Structure to design on (799 residues):
C-alpha cells in the first residue's frame, strides 16, 4: 500500500503553486487519500512530524521539490537509512501516471500545517557523499554545524542558518550539502555538480606535509598569485553579507 | 592561548550568576590599563615557579587566587586567564627561533570596504596595500622571520595545529575565538602567547599594538633546547630497527634468530622506543647526544613488548597481528612461545651491553623485572577469574588493568629516565603517570570494544571488562547466568547485556572513570620542574587519549 505525501513549500515557494494545485486537483478528482504537507522542511526542523505519522508502515511516495533534497530531509527523521521502498518525485516534472502501478487507499486528504514565522531555510547533508571533512563546519560563522558523538558532521542548529545563504555548500569538496529551498541546481539537490574548489588544496597539503614551515613559506612566496576560485569567492561574499546583516541587527 | 569553555568552571558560573562578569566588555580598553593588568599579574606570579603547560583547572585556580587580591579586576577574568597562560609560556616562546614561530592575525582587522586581498583555504593572502594596519604587523613579524597567517575563525588554523609540527604560536584574536582554539593548543601543548582584540564584533577590530610588538620581539639567547617532536624521534627509532643494525646486534645465522628479528621489526608504531628516546632527550635537554647505549635500550624495550605479544597471541589464540599472520599462525604455538622467550633474552642482553654505569644497569634490571612481574600477576589474576566463570569486582578489574597495562608505559618512561640520570622524584612521577595513563588507556579500549558485535566474543572468553563489572555490581546476580552458560546464544546475550548496560548507565560510569584517570595522569605532571619533559608527557597523554 502506498501513501502519497505532497509538499507545498509554503515558506520557500520552491514548488510552484500551479504544480501543487494541479496535483491536488488530480488527487482529489481520483478521491485518493494523501497527506498534504504545507512545508516539509519546516515540519521536520520543528520536530512536528515523525516518519511514523507520515507513512505508518506504508510505502510513501513523496511529491515536492528535488528528489535528492527530500530524500535527505526524510533521512533526518528516519533513524535508519531511507529504505529504497520510499519514492521521491519532483512535483513539476512528474505527472500522476507515476501512481498508475501503485495501490492507494481512497479517502479524504490530511493536512500537516506549518504555522511558524521562521522560514525553514537550512542545509541537509547527503551522507552518501559527506566525508565529515568539517570544511562546512569551519566555514560557517553561525554554528549551524556540529560534530556528533561519532565524529560525523551534523546540522545541529538549522535555525542559525541565514536565509538565502548557501555559502557552505560551495565550500563542500564532495557536493554533499543540499539547500532544498535554494533556487539553483545543484545546490537545491538537482542535477549537476558544483565545480570543486581546490584552493591549492592547502589544508590537505598541510595534513600530508612533512614540513609545514616550508609549505607556509611557499604559500607566502606565491601569494601574489590570486588563488581565489570562483566558488569560494562567491561563498566568501555571501557569508560576508550575512555577517554584515547580523552586525547591523545588533547595532 | 588561554581560554576555557565557561561551563567548565564552577567558579566562572558562580560569577556569572552573581552578575560579576559583564560579557560585553571584558578586555581593558586602553593600552595603559592592559599594561597595568599585565604588570600586576606578572608581579603576582613572579615568585611562583610555574612550569608550562598548565591545565585548565590550574589556570582557573591561579586566576581565582589572583582575584582574591584584586577583586577590582573580576570583570576581566577571561583576559586574566590569557595573561597568566602567556606569562607561563613566555620563557619557552623566547627560546624558540623566530622562523619556527607562527603569527596568527585575525582577518577582521582589515578594512572590509577597501580590502582587495584574495583568500585561500587558510585565510587571507594580504596584498599589503597599506589600506589597514595588517600591513604593519605583517611587515614587522616577517622581518623577524615569523610565518604569518591572516585567518578567520579557528577551522583552518586547527588543521595547522593538528599537524603536530607547529612549534610556537603568537595569536591575535577576539576572546570568543580564543575560547574555541584553547582546547587545541592545550592538547598539543604548543608554546603560545595570545593577545586579545579590544573588540569582539568581527569588524574593524583593534589590537594593542605595543603589546603585540613586545611579544613579537621576545627572544632569549638559548636556541638549542630540545623540543619534543614525535615524528622526529620516530625517524631516529626506525633506523634502529633496520636489518643492518639488528643483524649487527643479533647476527641472523640461525633460524630462530631470523624469526625473532623479523618479529621484532613487525608493526610500524614503535611507541615504546619512541617514548623512551623522547624522555631521554627531554631530560638530558639535548637532541644530539643519542648514542648506541640509548639505541640498545630502545630495542630492549621493544623486545620485551614483542615477547609479550607473541605469548598473548598464543593465550588468546589470535591468528592475526598487525594485519598479517601472527607467529602462532605463521609457525605454531611452540615456535611462538620459543620466539617470545628468545626476545626476552634480547632485552636483558641489551641492558647488560648498554655500557651504562653499573648503578644504572641495576636500576634498569629492577625496572624491567618489576614490569614483567606485574604483567604476569595481572594476567594470572585474570586467568583465575576466568576459571571460576565469574566477573571480578570493579576494584579487582582496576587492579588487573593496572598490572597489565601500566608496565608498558612505565618501563619505556623509566628506561629513558634512568639513562638520563633522572632523579627519584621524576621516576616517581613516571610511576604515577603510567599507572593513571595505563588505566585510562585500558578503559578506553574497553569502551571501544563494548558493542553488541564484539561483546559476544568477550563474554564467551570471559574477558574482564570494566563496563560488565560495573553492571554486575549494580545488578548483583543478574549476569551470572550469562557467564555460566557461555556457549548458547552468546549473540543474543550480548544484545541483552548491551541494553542493560546502557539502561543502567554502566557505560557512562566507565566513561567517567576514564576522565578521572586521565585527569590523574595530568595531575601527576604538576610535580615536574623540567619544562621539556612536562610538555612531552602532556602531548603523549593527548595523543594516546585524544579529546572526545
Amino acid at each position: 500500500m502506498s501513501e502519497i505525501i505532497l509538499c507545498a513549500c509554503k515558506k520557500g515557494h520552491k514548488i510552484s503553486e500551479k504544480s501543487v494545485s494541479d496535483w491536488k486537483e488530480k488527487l482529489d478528482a481520483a478521491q485518493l487519500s494523501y497527506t498534504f504537507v504545507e512545508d516539509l522542511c519546516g515540519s521536520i526542523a520543528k520536530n512536528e512530524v515523525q516518519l511514523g505519522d507520515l507513512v505508518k508502515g506504508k510505502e510513501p511516495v513523496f511529491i515536492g521539490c528535488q528528489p535528492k533534497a527530500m530524500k535527505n530531509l526524510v533521512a533526518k527523521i528516519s533513524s535508519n537509512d531511507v529504505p529504497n521502498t520510499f519514492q521521491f518525485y519532483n512535483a513539476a516534472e512528474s505527472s500522476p501516471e507515476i501512481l498508475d502501478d501503485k495501490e492507494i487507499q481512497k479517502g479524504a486528504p490530511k493536512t500537516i500545517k506549518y504555522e511558524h514565522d521562521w522560514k525553514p531555510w537550512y542545509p541537509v547533508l547527503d551522507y552518501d557523499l559527506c566525508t565529515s571533512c568539517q570544511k562546512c563546519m569551519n566555514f560557517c560563522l553561525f554554528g549551524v554545524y556540529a560534530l556528533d558523538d561519532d565524529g560525523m558532521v551534523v546540522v545541529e542548529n538549522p535555525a542559525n542558518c541565514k536565509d538565502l545563504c548557501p555559502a557552505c555548500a560551495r565550500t563542500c569538496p564532495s557536493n554533499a550539502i543540499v539547500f532544498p529551498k535554494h533556487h539553483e541546481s545543484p545546490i537545491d539537490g538537482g542535477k549537476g555538480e558544483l565545480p570543486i574548489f581546490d584552493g591549492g588544496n592547502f589544508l590537505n597539503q598541510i595534513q600530508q606535509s612533512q614540513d609545514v614551515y616550508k609549505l607556509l613559506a611557499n604559500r607566502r612566496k606565491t601569494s601574489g598569485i590570486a588563488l581565489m576560485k570562483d566558488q569560494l569567492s562567491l561563498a566568501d561574499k555571501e557569508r560576508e553579507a550575512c555577517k554584515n546583516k547580523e552586525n547591523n541587527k545588533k547595532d | 592561548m588561554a581560554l576555557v569553555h565557561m561551563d567548565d568552571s564552577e567558579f566562572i558560573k558562580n560569577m556569572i550568576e552573581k552578575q560579576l562578569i559583564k560579557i560585553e566588555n571584558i578586555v581593558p580598553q586602553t593600552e595603559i590599563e592592559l599594561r597595568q593588568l599585565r604588570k600586576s599579574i606578572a608581579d603576582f606570579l613572579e615568585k611562583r615557579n610555574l612550569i608550562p603547560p598548565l591545565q585548565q583547572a590550574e589556570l582557573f585556580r591561579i586566576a581565582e587566587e589572583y582575584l582574591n587580591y584584586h577583586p577590582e579586576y573580576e570583570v576581566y577574568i577571561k583576559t586574566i586567564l590569557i595573561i597568566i597562560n602567556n606569562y607561563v609560556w613566555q620563557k619557552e616562546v623566547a627560546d624558540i627561533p623566530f622562523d619556527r614561530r607562527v603569527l596568527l592575525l585575525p582577518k577582521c582587522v582589515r578594512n572590509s570596504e577597501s580590502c582587495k586581498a584574495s583568500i585561500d583555504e587558510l585565510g587571507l593572502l594580504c596584498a599589503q596595500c597599506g589600506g589597514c594596519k595588517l600591513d604593519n604587523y605583517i611587515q614587522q613579524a616577517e622581518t623577524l622571520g615569523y610565518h604569518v597567517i591572516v585567518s578567520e575563525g579557528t577551522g583552518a588554523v586547527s588543521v595547522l595545529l593538528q599537524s603536530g609540527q607547529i612549534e610556537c604560536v603568537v595569536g591575535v584574536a577576539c576572546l570568543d575565538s580564543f575560547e574555541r582554539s584553547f582546547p587545541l593548543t592545550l592538547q598539543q601543548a604548543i608554546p603560545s602567547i595570545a593577545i586579545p582584540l579590544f573588540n569582539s564584533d568581527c569588524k574593524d577590530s583593534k589590537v594593542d599594538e605595543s603589546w603585540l610588538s613586545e611579544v613579537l620581539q621576545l627572544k632569549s639567547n638559548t636556541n638549542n633546547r630540545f623540543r619534543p617532536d614525535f615524528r622526529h624521534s620516530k625517524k631516529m627509532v626506525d633506523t634502529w630497527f633496520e636489518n643492518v643494525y639488528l643483524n649487527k646486534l643479533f647476527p641472523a645465522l640461525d633460524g630462530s634468530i631470523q624469526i625473532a628479528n623479523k618479529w621484532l621489526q613487525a608493526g610500524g608504531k614503535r611507541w615504546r622506543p619512541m617514548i623512551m628516546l623522547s624522555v631521554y632527550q627531554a631530560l638530558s635537554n639535548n637532541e644530539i647526544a643519542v648514542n648506541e647505549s640509548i639505541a640498545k635500550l630502545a630495542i630492549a624495550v621493544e623486545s620485551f613488548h614483542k615477547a609479550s605479544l607473541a605469548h598473548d597471541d598464543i593465550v588468546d589464540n589470535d591468528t592475526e597481528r598487525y594485519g598479517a599472520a601472527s607467529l602462532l599462525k605463521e609457525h605454531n604455538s611452540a615456535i611462538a612461545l620459543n620466539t617470545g622467550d628468545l626476545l626476552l633474552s634480547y632485552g636483558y642482553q641489551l641492558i647488560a651491553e648498554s655500557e651504562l654505569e653499573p648503578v644504572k644497569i641495576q636500576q634498569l634490571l629492577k625496572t624491567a623485572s618489576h614490569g614483567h612481574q606485574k604483567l604476569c600477576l595481572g594476567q594470572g589474576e585474570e586467568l583465575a577469574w576466568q576459571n571460576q566463570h565469574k566477573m571480578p569486582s570493579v576494584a579487582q578489574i582496576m587492579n588487573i588493568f593496572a598490572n597489565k597495562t601500566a608496565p608498558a608505559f612505565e618501563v619505556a618512561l623509566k628506561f629513558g629516565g634512568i639513562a638520563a640520570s633522572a632523579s627519584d622524584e621524576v621516576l616517581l612521577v613516571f610511576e604515577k603517570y603510567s599507572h593513571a595513563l595505563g588505566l585510562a588507556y585500558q578503559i578506553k579500549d574497553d569502551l571501544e570494544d563494548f558493542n553488541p558485535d564484539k561483546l559476544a566474543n568477550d563474554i564467551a572468553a570471559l574477558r574482564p571488562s570494566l563496563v560488565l563489572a560495573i553492571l554486575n555490581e549494580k545488578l548483583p546476580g543478574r549476569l551470572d547466568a550469562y557467564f555460566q552458560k557461555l556457549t548458547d546464544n552468546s549473540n543474543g546475550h550480548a544484545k541483552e547485556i548491551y541494553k542493560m548496560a546502557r539502561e543502567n548507565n554502566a557505560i557512562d560510569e566507565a566513561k567517567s572513570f576514564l576522565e578521572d584517570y586521565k585527569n590523574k595522569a595530568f595531575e601527576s605532571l604538576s610535580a615536574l620542574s623540567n619544562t621539556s619533559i612536562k610538555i612531552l608527557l602532556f602531548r603523549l597523554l593527548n595523543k594516546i587519549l585524544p579529546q572526545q
